[in-house]
Fold each of these.
Amino acid sequence: MNVWAIGDLHLSLDPRIEKPMDIFGGSWVGHDKKLKEIWLRMVEPEDLVVLAGDISWALRLEEALEDLKWIDALPGTKLILKGNHDLWWSGISKVKNACKDMPTLRFLQHDAFIWGRCIVFGSRGWTCPGAKDYHEDEDGAIYRREVLRLEMSAKEAARLAEGVDDPCIVGVMHYPPMNEKFEPNGFTQILEQSGAKQVVYGHLHGQNAFKNGPQGIFNGIEYSLISLDKLACCPKLIYRE
């Protein structure tokens, strides 16, 4: 039983959504077909795949259903986190109700998820203080709200871990949990206190942007960027049991 992770699928299978990713070239040319081919080769039905946000370009939930059905049809259970472009995600209850006939989909919001001895928690996150595009008037309240949401999720992860022998705790976010200077902040404080040994995140695209997120070990946690183009459509193995 394995746990995989990848972010930023940016699907647009509903014909009403015109958001071709091919214009970005490279890994984005036919990216959904590449992802499906690799996924079918690597992921087993008993596996879990963590999807770190920006799932669909849809603006409304009904427009996202084709993308969600496509994901549901792939092997494994999928744990989906909201990204900044997931505007179709208007409320967790509405999303769960719309996906009630998609048995492999799970959604992470203000809680945590256990798969074997692996416990996953996280939140969307936001631009961190000290980042070049952070503005307190515009971003401060959202950043602090996301810190609180991450804290809620971490507390649930701790509760789940109480009944697990040697748990593996994994943090997942959509935004990178540090600014470009890799300075500590509210997110990193919670992640370090959670007992997580690794954290995965997406959001950053292109060689020039990849370097703006933490990659490697910081204060005992291994951080990995798992946006689709960074991984060349290949989900990253983050846990094996």
Note: The first strand starts at residue 2 and ends at 6.
Amino acid sequence: MFDASSDLYDLIYSAFKDYPAEAAAVAGLLRTHHPGCHSLLDVGCGTGTHARLLAGEYGFAVDGLDRNADFVRIATAKHPGGRFYRADMGDFHLPQRYDAVISLFSSIGYVMTTDALARTLACFAEHLAEGGIVVVEPWFEPGALTDGYVMTHRAETEGLRVVRTSRTEIVGRTSRLHFTYEVETADDVKTLHEEHELGLFTEDEMRAGFHAAGLNVAYDPAGLTGRGLYVARRRED
């Protein structure tokens, strides 16, 4: 997962992803669903841009977690006020409890199976403080992606130019994203390759995963970026 391209991640995604607008929307949602919300755990936090904005612009106390060691390193430098952990989103056990556990940018798709989805959401629920909520931005449902679809993104900064081409492959209930990076500097041109696999879950399967984790859930089909958004809390709340 972005092991070859972690140091290029911010350059590529800042070219087309509106992090400030997403952070503003998440902050508003948290204030609406949990007015006293202060502490957040960002699971699948990537390089920590959402965490930095939610802390710096909206006053939340934000920690993060990601499997990628380079992402944890970058996020820690970007938001030194937070604690960032390297761990699997489906198997982590922190001493802290949070007013909200959030997982954005479809990171949940990497769990791949419905059993792993249920375990992951149970892990999220385990880390909730009393009255806390879980916010999850899903990956796409089966049938939403086109097999063979190709997309290209370009980004550059002083002395560095990157062209990333992605090709989507659909195999049953799995989407494979084949990324090729052409990286050009003043001294060198190199090509990097990555393959990402994300599970394709239906809304019913997502809801079942939340239910198995002991959570009541509401679903917004538009969400932050058109991929939908789930907001959940423990049933006893």
Note: DSSP finds six helices and eleven strands in the chain.
